[in-house]
Automatic annotation (TrEMBL):
Organism of origin: Favella ehrenbergii
CDD domains: CYCLIN_CCNY_like
Taxon lineage: Eukaryota, Sar, Alveolata, Ciliophora, Intramacronucleata
Residues spanning the signal sequence: none
Annotated PANTHER family: CYCLIN Y, ISOFORM A (PTHR14248)
Protein name: Cyclin N-terminal domain-containing protein
Amino acid sequence: MRKEQLRADDQLQLTREQLYANVSHIIVSHICEAQRLIPVPTEGAKLFHEYNFMPHQWTIETANGYSSTMPLFHFYFEKVDYEEMHPEVEDVMRFIRGVMDQMQLTTECVVIGLIYLEKVMLTGKIEIRDFNWKPLVFTATLLASKFWEDIIWYNVDFVENLQIYSLKSINRMESEFLSLCDYNIYVSAEKYEQYQAQVRSISFPNEQVHRHCRRHSSDLQPTNAAQATSSAATSLMNRIKRATSFGSWREGTALTTQ
């Protein structure tokens, strides 16, 4: 019996890249569900809008006429608008890989980060969307590294090594995330094993996630914004409780973050 269990465990071993892929599929599936169920983003989701934390970009424009002979009087700055794009699985994988590899974090941080991500979805009632998945994934990974790693990286280390967000932005993201988690980021061994087993055992072909997103993209018709936001947010939280983590893809495998 023990040999059979060990053999089964060996068959479920994942490479680092496979782990990134599975977790990325889970995140994208959550984004698809939020887009389908909530036509208007909730205030909680807007709290982690990437525009609030990313360095603002500007372009330098010159006016016609005397710009070549009198440049000091004809330069002006124009802020670059934030472009919201739906992430593909490869985009999420690339982002997770960049953080993990640059900070030299162990693979356990990916699983713990997923636990934190779904915990903030449940306790903070925040949906993951196209415009906030990067700050949420980043903060979840940062907190996972502080919980798991023997050598603790400080926030300033993430600034210097990754150069994605400023120290002020990271401190703000961490503070908001912890508050929404009720300052409880403890992960029991049982909870970790539960998530790890699920992540190892699933298989997410890319086209499965894409079909899921396309199939539900037109299900929800526009309604009154306030009413739609309230009812859809409640539906999403109920859906997450049933589907977390990836129960909507594999029936009977739902997890519940306490």
